[in-house]
Each structure stands twice: as structure tokens, then as C-alpha cells.
Design brief:
Radius of gyration: 25 Å
Distance between the termini: 31 Å
CATH class of the largest domain: Alpha Beta
Strand order of the largest sheet: 19-20-18-21-22-17-23-24
CATH superfamily of the largest domain: P-loop containing nucleotide triphosphate hydrolases
Helix content: 25-40%
Shape: globular
CATH topology of the largest domain: Rossmann fold
CATH architecture of the largest domain: 3-Layer(aba) Sandwich
Largest sheet: 8 strands, mixed
């Protein structure tokens, strides 16, 4: 193949890929490798990707063959691929599905046509404990109780199993999506949402029924969940992040399906009603009275004959839920998320217990089609006040981050931004990590503050006022990261964050990505103290947005003080 030195990729033998940001083919190359390569670093000019086993297996599970991955690398590489890389890539991709779980006459079996491989795996510590009777040269009997933990063990030794054992149908539920919502508006599932459900369900085949759908915030993951319920027509348990999210799911299901209210139950700290469709929070499921005690609400997973369990925001799945999920592998499982990145690095557990990635649409693709708003991301850098610099210099490591995050000069930048976005069409969210800082901002600018301590009824009332335009500004703590439906929010001011959390960055941007009237862009401002630990973490937080094709405009604090549109001080990402 003819290679072109003007191409943007440098592919290296250690499975790293360097991508030139300033190259004219940058966007095409990024989109070509994103399905199977993981972004590791994204400074100004060169982005570093890595081909990891999990990134390759997720691509393979989504239907991308090894040859297509190699072709993408060859198309955009400056130089010939290292001779070892195509061989290594094909070998890693081929490991997915070389061992399979399936049923013969109702009996669960692990099989591999490669007998030496099966012999090797049978001697692996961690795998052999879950193997039952040797049935023949290519298969072992497996106890159904070990279906999940065996998949975890196999992925740990580098051979992820393809699970074709099938699923219990669950109790039947008559449910259909409406063509017109209860509120009177026309309703239709979008083409990419239909594609996501089709990839997950696979027409009812054993190859469908477990997996993760990756869609941007604001792209309608709740509708994907409802469409999956309508496709399966079975009793469903939905797990989500908060009581607010439970109420949002309930509103959407009532509005867009023909289910009666009595068929939808909520299982939270406030109410515990079981119904054919039950909406629960991760917090109540993982509650236990004593730190080393049992989880009294785990019985929820077997309380009804669920045919489907939906894990909303699956990247936030608490560790105890992995344990119970390993025990319920016969239930169909659908994960919904905007990012597969987990801060606890348990992506392999998501792959083995919930299922591999089945469908993924980049943010920029949906933005180009008008399904989500264009986003303009800005990082505004400011100095610490002289009175804080010595305190910062002498502080302990974690205290340094708090001091930088609570930099009081950020309030002046908030003032400048609120003055800039003060039109009747502007809806501004101010979000942060530290309550003391947020209370000061809320008091100074006379804006309501919502925290974890705000009663649910009060939260819902404030969210409703924001949706109706009665309120045009809200201050939010971390409760604003997840599953709140504020479609008119157009500006996000991030005054502080959770260290270097990429998932948090994704969730916060997602709050403002609903399409705006007149095709107005969404604007995301993050305020960062210069020459501090906050700067270091900010680079990591930007990784997710860079991965999705967004760029950060780097501004100085003086740019916001100036009148008119912000001046461009430089670009990163």
C-alpha cells in the first residue's frame, strides 16, 4: 500500500498511535480509529491513543473485524505499519469468542473448538474453580450460578467468552410506544435510537440481550431504554442514579408509552412500590445498615420475574451491583452511558457482566445532524490572589486542590459571564464541587442552590421553574451531574470539579447539549486556577471531550473582563 508522509497518524509497535491535531485529515483519522483505540493523552498538538485488549474486544463485539481496523490504520498512517502490529491486532481480536457459553438440552456449557486452548484455560487458577464435569474434548459443564464469575475469570486471563446461553423471557408485559405523547406532541424514535435497540436485541437471538449502548448526554438514552422495553414486552427493572432520575424516567414512560401509572413502581428511599416496570436508585440497592453487613435490598433483583434489567449511567455502577449482577446472568441486561470510562477502572467488569459495547454514535455525528446542540468549550485560566499563594504553597496535596478550586477570584469571572449571558433566551447553570463556594455564589448573585440536602419536592419545583423560564439561572452541586432534564440550559459554568474525572466532564457538558431554538450553540466554561494542581487535573478531564472531537478554547481571565466576544488565546484538545 502507498503511504503518505502528509497523513496524520504515526502507528508504533508498542500499540500506541500518535495523531497530529493540526493535520487537515485529523478529524477523519480520529473518527476512523475511535471505535477500536482508547485515547490516553490530548495535549495541544499530538494526541496519543492506545490499542488495548478491551478496546479491540469492544469493537469486535460491535461487529468490526480486525481487517477493518488495520485498513483504517493503513489509510491514515504516515509510515508502513510496524510488521508486528497487524499480527498482534488480529491475534487479540481473534481471542473474543474463541470460548463460548451456550446451552445443550438445557445444560450450560463452556466450549472451545481449540482443544489445547481449552486445556490451558482449564488449568488457569481462577478459571478451573468454576468448571464442572468434563463432557468431551471441547466442553465442560457449568453451574448456572457461575455464569457471571466465569466470564470475569476468562476476561482476566485474556480470553473473553461469547455468551450465547440465552436469557429467561421474564413475565410478559403488554407495552407499546405512542405515536403521539400524552402531552399531545408527535413522537417518533430516531433512527440511531432504533439502531441501538436493534443492535442490543438482535431480533431476540442469543447474540443479543446483554450489552452497553454509548450515546451522548441529550441524545435520548431514556428513549432507547423505553424502546427496548417495548421490543421485549417484558417486566423490567430500571436502576438509575438518583430519585430525580427515577422521576424523570417515570415522566418519560408515562408520556411516551401506553402503560398505565399503576404499572410503574418506584423503589427509592422515599417509596418502595414494586410493579411490572420498577424504577430504583443505585443508592437504595446498595444500602446496608452496617459497613460489613448484608445488602437488604438485593432481593429486588429476584422479587419479580424480570425479563430485562436496565443499568442507567452504567459507568457509575456501584461495585456491590457487580456482585449481584454476576448472579443474574439469565436476565437480559442493557447498560446506557455516555462514556465507558470508569474512574475505578472496572471497564472489564462492565464488559463481562453487563455486556460488551453494542452500539456507539459519536457526539459530533449527532451534532452535525442537529440532534444535539453544537458545543463551544472554553477553559478560563486565572491566578490565585496574592493572599492565597503562600497558603497554597504550604498546603498538603489534597488541600492544594481545594484551595485552587475555591479560588475566590472565580466569583468575578462568574459575574462577567452572567453579565454576558443575560438575555431572555439564556439559561445558565453554575456547577461545582465545594458547597461553601457554591453557597457564596448563590448568595452573591441571588440564584437558587440545589444540593444533595435539598428536599426532592423542592428540587423538582426549581427544575420545573427553570424549564418554564421562570428561573433562568441555577447553582448546582454534584447532584447536577446526572440525569436531570433541563432541555433549555444553554450555558454551563463549571467552578470546580472532582479531581480529574473524565466521566464528570461528560455528564456536565451533557446538561446543555439539547438542541436550541435558532441553532444557538451550547457554551461550556470551566474556570481553572493557573499554576496549581487544578491545572493538572483539568488536562485529564479534557480527555473525554477531546475523544468526542471537541476542542477547548483557552482564555485568560482578562479576556472575560474585556467587552465583546471573548478573544482567542490559544487552543487545546
Amino acid at each position: 500500500m502507498q503511504y503518505n508522509p502528509t497523513n496524520p497518524l504515526i502507528v508504533q509497535g508498542d500499540r500506541t498511535i500518535l495523531l497530529e491535531v493540526d493535520n487537515p485529515l485529523h478529524a477523519q483519522a480520529r473518527d476512523a480509529i475511535a471505535p477500536f483505540a482508547e485515547l490516553e493523552k490530548s495535549p495541544e498538538h499530538i494526541h496519543t491513543y492506545r490499542l488495548t485488549p478491551l478496546s479491540l474486544w469492544n469493537a469486535a463485539a460491535a461487529g468490526m473485524p480486525a481487517d477493518a481496523m488495520i485498513a483504517a490504520l493503513e489509510t491514515y498512517s504516515k509510515f508502513p505499519l510496524p510488521p508486528n502490529l497487524p499480527v498482534d491486532l488480529r491475534e487479540l481480536v481473534s481471542r473474543y469468542g474463541r470460548v463460548r457459553l451456550h446451552r445443550v438440552a438445557g445444560q450450560l456449557r463452556l466450549t472451545a473448538q481449540d482443544r489445547p486452548l481449552l486445556e490451558e484455560l482449564a488449568r488457569q487458577r481462577g478459571v478451573r474453580d468454576y468448571l464442572g464435569e468434563r463432557l468431551d474434548e471441547t466442553s465442560f459443564a457449568i453451574d448456572d450460578a457461575f455464569r457471571g464469575v466465569l466470564k470475569q475469570a476468562l476476561i482476566a486471563v485474556g480470553y473473553p467468552a461469547e455468551d450465547l446461553a440465552g436469557y429467561t423471557p421474564g413475565a410478559a408485559l403488554s407495552v407499546a410506544l405512542r405515536s403521539r405523547t400524552r402531552s399531545g406532541l408527535p413522537f417518533r424514535v430516531r433512527d440511531y435510537q432504533e439502531g441501538a435497540v436493534a443492535a442490543f436485541y438482535a431480533g431476540g437471538d442469543a447474540r443479543g440481550g446483554s450489552g452497553v449502548i454509548v450515546l451522548p448526554c441529550g441524545a435520548g438514552k431514556t428513549i432507547v431504554g423505553m424502546a427496548a422495553i417495548a421490543a421485549l414486552k417484558t417486566e423490567t427493572l430500571v436502576l438509575t442514579t438518583s430519585t430525580t432520575a427515577v422521576e424523570q424516567w417515570r415522566r418519560e414512560i408515562l408520556d411516551k408509552t401506553d402503560l398505565d401509572p399503576g404499572l410503574i413502581g418506584t423503589y427509592t428511599g422515599d417509596a418502595k412500590t414494586l410493579a411490572p416496570v420498577t424504577l430504583a436508585t443505585y443508592q437504595i440497592v446498595t444500602y446496608r445498615p452496617k459497613k460489613d453487613g448484608e445488602f437488604p435490598h438485593f432481593h429486588l433483583f429476584n422479587q419479580r420475574d424480570w425479563g430485562l434489567i436496565i443499568y442507567d449511567e452504567v459507568h457509575l455502577l456501584p461495585a456491590p451491583v457487580f456482585r449481584i449482577t454476576a448472579e443474574i446472568q439469565a436476565r437480559r441486561r442493557l447498560g446506557l452511558t455516555a462514556t465507558l470510562v470508569r474512574e475505578d477502572h472496572r471497564e472489564e467488569d462492565v464488559f463481562s457482566l453487563i455486556g460488551p459495547k453494542k452500539y456507539d454514535v459519536p457526539w459530533r455525528v449527532l451534532e452535525a445532524k442537529g440532534w444535539i446542540a453544537e458545543a463551544q468549550c472554553h477553559e478560563v485560566r486565572l491566578s490565585l490572589p496574592p493572599t492565597l499563594r503562600m497558603e497554597y504553597a504550604l498546603a498538603e496535596w489534597r488541600e492544594k486542590f481545594r484551595l485552587a478550586s475555591e479560588n475566590p477570584l472565580k466569583e468575578e469571572l462568574v459575574a462577567a459571564l452572567l453579565e454576558r449571558f443575560d438575555g431572555p433566551e439564556d439559561r445558565v447553570l453554575i456547577i461545582g464541587q465545594y458547597l461553601k463556594q457554591l453557597r457564596r455564589i448563590a448568595e452573591r448573585f441571588d440564584v437558587p442552590l440545589i444540593t444533595g440536602a435539598t428536599p426532592n419536592a423542592e428540587r423538582e419545583e426549581l427544575y420545573d421553574q427553570f424549564r418554564r423560564g421562570v428561573l433562568r439561572r441555577l447553582v448546582l452541586s454534584k447532584v447536577g451531574n446526572f440525569a436531570i432534564d433541563l432541555p433549555d440550559a444553554s450555558v454551563m459554568i463549571q467552578v470546580s470539579g472532582t479531581f480529574g474525572s473524565r466521566q464528570e466532564e461528560a455528564q456536565r457538558l451533557g446538561r446543555i447539549l439539547r438542541p436550541k431554538e435558532g441553532e444557538r450553540p451550547a457554551r461550556f466554561y470551566t474556570l481553572v486556577s493557573r499554576d496549581t494542581r487544578e491545572m493538572d487535573f483539568a488536562h485529564h478531564r479534557q480527555l473525554f471531550l477531546t475523544e468526542q472531537g471537541y476542542s477547548y478554547e483557552i482564555l485568560d481571565e482578562g479576556d472575560l473582563a474585556a467587552s465583546g466576544p471573548p478573544a482567542r488565546a490559544g487552543a487545546a484538545g
